[in-house]
Amino acid sequence: MSANVSFADRDAARDWLTRLAYTAIAAVHPANLLPDQLPQPPKGRTVVVGAGKASAAMAKALEEAWQTRTPDAELSGLVVTRYEHGEACQRIEVLEASHPMPDELGEQAAKRMLEAVSDLTEHDLVISLVSGGGSALMTLPAPGLGLTQKQALSKELLRSGATIREINTVRRHLSAIKGGRLAAAAHPARVVTYLISDVPGDDPTLIASGPTLPDESTPGDALAILEARGIEIADSVRGHLSGDHSAPHQNDSGFNRDEHVVLAKAADALRAALDQGRGDGIEVRLLGDDLEGEARELGSEHAAMALTAQDESKHPLLILSGGETSVTVHGDGRGGRNVEYLLGLYEALAGAEGIYALAIDTDGIDGSEDNAGALIGPDTWQRAQERELTAGEYLARNDAYSFFEMLDELIVTGPTRTNVNDFRAILVLPRNS
Length: 433
Known about the structure:
It contains 15 helices and twelve strands. It starts with 9 loop residues before the first helix and ends in a 5-residue tail after the last strand. 38% of the residues lie in helices and 16% in strands. The chain folds into two domains: 10-27 and 267-428, MOFRL domain (glycerate kinase, domain 1), CATH 3.40.1480; 31-264, Glycerate kinase, MOFRL-like N-terminal domain (Rossmann fold). It is globular. The mean pLDDT is 94. By secondary structure, the protein is an alpha/beta fold.
């Protein structure tokens, strides 16, 4: 396969990878997906609820399509998104709250959603707009528990290296709204849920902890996760998880008329990037859309793969992957999982010529910083050596953000208003190019 794009200099390679990332993000934006998926208006009311980093953009897309198709049909409701991720809507109220640590505004938003669906009939329709980040943004502790307890547990889970499946299993069983409880409050109304998946495997019950989808896990599962991760458990939390507080089950009759649609997932973003790569005449290797594990370790593994591929290939190669890695926090530095992945990859590449890499979170926010991720090339190593920057020191204190900031390698997109988690691309050029 012969590439029909030129990588004559480092700027060309970097620009191409950046365009590739924006292509991937556009493929999973709700404005391009939701309008053609909407249900018919019901005889009664239509109430919109939702949470997540993409929920405001989903609400805007829904509202505009609804106005065009059925301008006289009633539409109201509210969604909650992360600070600075809002969109201007006319009929649907957009609230903002904290992420990844929940706050009082997220708790208030959850209470208001339960109130909004509390008096509906079988003639009414609830449209739920759910995306990654919704679990932290829509926080309503179960009876007997407090917000400060959930904040403390969230912090410990995030620092422990727990997977998103583990984190959201715990969240569901300490909540008064997640794990299908929002839908149970809305029944006998019909509930249609639209999801943008940020979880490996795209299990809809895990996306934002499944507020409108029945749950098959148990409180005992959540307790076992906390114990396995070595997290201190307050007596009130242990007592709650040891009791009979299971979430609504899928066999509950109220869910019979409900349905859900996964609008976008990591595989869709990767497919768009794959198509662009092949369209440009580049060989593409897709590693999967659900990769997990320690970010820096995965970066090191991918570096070895890229070096091997470079020895074997005579043509440009693009290596793509998605999913959600983890970071076990030992230091007090700044950074998210994508820059930590990239720093692990950078260290293992040791300045190898002809290899460029990009890693971003598709929501535009890597962890809790202002960057989406970063991008590196062979010159990154050279400039770091000149400044006596050692990757190992920055990895030891989980400070990948600072490392790449000093080298001007951070990618700052601002909120993208979608979220299918990590997007990673490695461009491997032949040694003689």
